[in-house]
Structure formats: structure tokens, C-alpha cells
Design a protein that fits this description.
Blueprint (H helix, E strand, L loop, with lengths): L13 H17 L2 E8 L2 E7 L4 H10 L11 H35 L2 E5 L3 H4 L6 E2 L7 E2 L3 H14 L1 H14 L3 E5 L19 E2 L2 E3 L6 E3 H13 L8
Parallel strand pairs: 3-6
Antiparallel strand pairs: 1-2, 4-5, 7-8, 8-9
Helix pairs in contact: 2-3, 3-6
Length: 236
């Protein structure tokens, strides 16, 4: 989600059309699939999908060699290890650079910033084993493989690094940073306040009592702002 400075309503008419065209061209250039694009007078909402990057492809190639000691690795194995290590360093630099630039932009444009108080350590915790009641000593599937992939994506996003940098820049610039309770932010209707898991269907939000409809991430952002006291309830 992107907003012009002071949320001025400047994205209308031919400007909105041209902005949509430029976003589509850039997405095609990068190989991204646009899932949702909404250009409103005072904000742009954009969600994209993209294929696995070069780092993940290199990691898959490295797995083909198996686990061996350093002195027993072949030349190709060492090359694969060096390639993955080099990409990891590059991704870390890119993640840190993006976090600094994004945090600086937020601190420059806004006096008050709200975010969800995320407990990342709990979010990336491993799945608990599920003993099989019918076979003593055996275990039932617990979704550990899927959870491991989710954990990698969460850690790769670098939420903790970004929030730490944002907190430092906000303090140095005398800005107010407001962490709020993240529970049910995307399941709570910003219009009537109804909380229900059935309100959300993937990325779609539809309140069961009042039929309010919106994107689930946009609803979550509104609820974060409401809980932080940055907007009035009747403005949502």
C-alpha cells in the first residue's frame, strides 16, 4: 500500500490510468503477477506474486550434493556452497537497505506510525510432534514441512529487522511509534466491529452481519489504525 504525502487526493483521471499502466509495465518487466491493483485518489493498493528467486534455485541445486564434511566436498560442491553463501550476503544487504529506506520514508512523511506488535519468535516456532495413538512410538503428520517453508518466508521478510530500524529512526526524529495488539485485525469488521473467522475468505473480507466488503489486508490496516487511535471509528 502506498500513499502520497499527506494523503493528498492527486491520483485521479489520467494520472490514475497512467500510474496503472506504469505499474503493469514494471510488473511485466520483473516477471510479477499482479493479484490486485487498486488506484484510489489518495492511495494505491498493490499485491503481486513472483516465482522463486535465484537464491532458492541455488539452494535446491546445493541440496543435490547431500551433507558432507568440508574436506570431502568436490569442486562443484564447493562452487555451489560459495554461490549460495554469496547470494545470502547479497540478500542480507538488500534486505537491510530496503528496511532503512522504507523506515526513513515513513518517518519523513508521518508524525505517528502504528504497527502490529508481532511476536516473531512464536510465529516461527516449529510444529509440535503428534504421537500416533494407534501406533506407539510413531507420529502422525503435523505439517512440519509446510511450517518450515512458512518460517523461511517470515524470516526472509525481515520483519524484526525492519521494526527495529523503524523504532530507532522514529525515536531519533521524535516520531510516535504505536505497537498494537495484532489479534483478529483482519477478522474484525471496521464498520460494525463484528469479530468472526468467517468474515475472511483468503484475501477477501465480507462481514457476515453488515455485509461490509474489502480486501483483508486493507481491513487489517484500518483496524491497526483504529486501535492506535489514529482514525475515528466512523471514518473507517
Amino acid at each position: 500500500m502506498w500513499c502520497p504525502k499527506y494523503r493528498r487526493q492527486v491520483l485521479g483521471g489520467r494520472v490514475a490510468v497512467r500510474l496503472g499502466e506504469l505499474i503493469a509495465l514494471k510488473a511485466a518487466e520483473r516477471g510479477w503477477e499482479i493479484v490486485a491493483l487498486e488506484v484510489m485518489p489518495d492511495h494505491v493498493l498493490l499485491f503481486v506474486k513472483h516465482e522463486p528467486n535465484a537464491l532458492r534455485q541455488a539452494q535446491r541445486a546445493l541440496k543435490a550434493f547431500g551433507r558432507t564434511k568440508r574436506e570431502n566436498r568436490t569442486a562443484k560442491h564447493r562452487q555451489a556452497v560459495d554461490k549460495v553463501a554469496k547470494m545470502h550476503r547479497k540478500v542480507a544487504r538488500q534486505r537491510l537497505d530496503h528496511a532503512h529506506k522504507t523506515a526513513l520514508g515513513l518517518v519523513r512523511d508521518y508524525d505517528q506510525i502504528a504497527h502490529e506488535r508481532l511476536n516473531i519468535a512464536n510465529m516461527v516456532a516449529t510444529s509440535k510432534p503428534k504421537p500416533d495413538p494407534e501406533q506407539p512410538g510413531a507420529f502422525s503428520p503435523n505439517g512440519a514441512a509446510c511450517k518450515a517453508g512458512l518460517n523461511r518466508s517470515i524470516l526472509d521478510a525481515g520483519w524484526g529487522v525492519f521494526l527495529g530500524i523503524l523504532a530507532q529512526k522514529a525515536e531519533s526524529a521524535a516520531r510516535v511509534l504505536i505497537p498494537v495488539d495484532p489479534r483478529n485485525t483482519s477478522r474484525t469488521c471496521p464498520e460494525c466491529g463484528h469479530v468472526d473467522g468467517e468474515n475472511r475468505d483468503g484475501e477477501k473480507f465480507q462481514c457476515t452481519p453488515c455485509d461490509h466488503r474489502d480486501h483483508a489486508d486493507r481491513v487489517g490496516a484500518w483496524n491497526v489504525a483504529l486501535r492506535a487511535g489514529l482514525v475515528l471509528p466512523d471514518m473507517a
